Amino acid sequence: MNIDEKANFSKFGKLFQENLCQLILYDRIFADQMREVLNINFLELKYLQTFVKKIFNYKEKYGTHPSDKIMLTVLRTEIENENELVQKQVRDFFARMMKTDVQDAEYIKDVALDFCKKQILKEAILKSVPLLERSSFEDIQALIDNAMKLGLDNDYGYDYIKDFEERFEIQARNPVTTGWSIVDSLCKGGLGRGELGIVIAPTGVGKSMALVHLGAEAIKEEKTVIHYTLELQDTVVACRYDSCITGLGLMEIFSKKDEVYDEIKDLKGKLVIKEYPTKSASTATIHNHLEKLRQRDISVDMVIVDYADLLSSKANISEKRHQLESIYEELRGIGQEFECPIWTASQTNRSGLSEEVITMEKISEAFNKCFVADFIFSLARTADDKITNGGRMYIAKNRNGPDGMVYPIFMDTSNVNIKVLPSTGQSVGEINKGAVKRQQERIKEIYKDNRKKHKET
Asked: Element (H or E) spanning 353, and its range?
């Protein structure tokens, strides 16, 4: 190239250049863009030049992007022509790279592409000067147009041949346990990163407590949980976590403050509770808060939103059901961006109050929000169940395993104690038939009692 030899990434620093090379290896789409516009000499360090050359040479020779395992083999066997110092620097860099993730990847990609494209355009302009003197306007236009096209986003999707290696790499879901072994066995260990889980229940059944249980179990597994509350005060939610983790009743927490602290002080996991007034926060609010946490080097392992129906959408949509659908789509997008599972809850319509098993048909307002979820379970507790600490969980949707099962549960809301018990083998239809039969028997008993009282009078 005829670009100024002094033009390079030196002003951005060594870490920027190392992160850039790491992204070229791990991001095939970005690597294809950079391959069109990157002059290797833009990298001021010889070992980084060698590293990127090997990536591009492999892509040119085999027509596919190298995996990190292939790259390890390449660096062991194909850099003998470099001096010993460069060989050591390349291998040391690769070893460091394997242990760290790139921070601010989008910024690095934007800056690098912008820098390279500007250099390409400068070269095209310099080449246009003699063409201008000859009035070769069409040649000038073609030269500039070609320069402008280089480095554009060329993501046409997953390339069956070029991305061959990618589909044989193990895709880690990094699931976070639900704390219920029965449920974990159904969804391959819990909710995975980028996945959305929804708890469906009528008002007063225990949606919020189920979310606290899920958060508490993650904390016990040394995870960092961000819990957004749009209904309850942050201190009230914190007390529920105290009760769930310690086993003490909610009424005992204040009188046993020292005992609570002694039990939670050594927890390896972290909990951040952020309170927003109802309908004052949107998915954009949550995104911005998570971004601030990330900038403070707080890693996010799980997000809980209690609950999504109380958020406002960042999209300007007037109809409520479309707005709710948009909220759930945006939440799942946040989970994918921050690579963590997101749990939230949704309310059933009124008919769900009397159901012994709640299916997705009972979800209120917008059924379409179920489409974006990866895992959905419902909780049903009749008046009698609340007295006996009973109830039923129905697995309504499960992208990672079977669904449609009903499990009895034990739920003691006095100390946020929720257990999923082995299935009785009954189907939804059988349970509902039994519920109808019991209801008819109650009506008959009431009718008999009323007739008896009438005769006595």
From this structure: none
Task: Parse the chain into domains and list their residue ranges.
Answer: 9-168, 181-426
C-alpha dist (Å) from residue 417 to 41, 190, 216, 382, 424: 62, 19, 11, 18, 21
Q: What is the mean pLDDT of residues 314-323?
A: 70
Answer yes or no: are the C-beta atoms of 175 and 352 closer than 8 Å.
no
Q: Find, among 23, 18, 8, the residue nearest to 89 by Cα.
A: 18
Rg, the chain, Cα only = 30
Structure tokens given for 283: 């998915």
What is the rounded distance in angstroms from the CA atom of residue 316 to the CA atom of residue 307? 20
Which class does domain 181-426 fall in? alpha beta
Instruction: Compute the distance between CA of residue 299 and CA of residue 306 in angstroms, rounded to an integer.
Output: 20
Within a 10 A sphere around the Cβ of 336, how many other Cβ atoms?
A: 14
Q: Any idea what DSSP says for residue 134? A: T
Question: Residue 108's closest CA among 39, 20, 28?
Answer: 20
Which amino acid does the sequence have at 90? V
Q: Where are the alpha helices (DSSP H) in 365-427?
A: 383-388
Nearest residue to 55 via CA among 84, 93, 6, 8: 93
Listing DSSP states for 28-66 in one string gives HHHHHHHHHH--GGGS-SHHHHHHHHHHHHHHHHHSSPP
215 in Cβ contact with 199 (< 8 Å): no
Q: How far is CA 225 from CA 30, 172, 200, 265, 340, in A?
A: 32, 19, 21, 16, 10
For the segment 278-312, what is each residue's pLDDT rounded down to a tens digit? 878 999 999 999 998 988 888 899 999 998 989 88
Give Cα separations from 264 to 178, 228, 298, 337 (angstroms): 19, 20, 20, 30
Cβ atoms of 211 and 375 within 8 Å: the answer is no
Q: In what order do the strands lie in the sheet containing 342-347?
A: 270-275, 224-229, 302-306, 342-347, 196-201, 375-380, 392-398, 406-412, 417-420
pLDDT tens digits along 121-176:
888 788 888 877 777 777 777 777 776 766 565 555 667 776 776 666 656 778 99
DSSP result, 65-133:
PPPHHHHHHHHHHS-TTS-HHHHHHHHHHHHHHHH-PPSSHHHHHHHHHHHHHHHHHHHHHHHHHHHHH
DSSP helix, strand, coil percent of the chain (3-state; round to 5): 55, 15, 35
What is the three-class DSSP state of 273? strand
**Given pLDDT bands bounded at 50, 70 and 90, which one contains residue 315?**
low
Give, in order, the Cα–Cα distances in Å from 194 to each of 197, 222, 345, 375.
10, 19, 17, 12
* Gap between the Cα atoms of 410 and 393, Å rounded: 10
Residue type, position 434, single letter: G
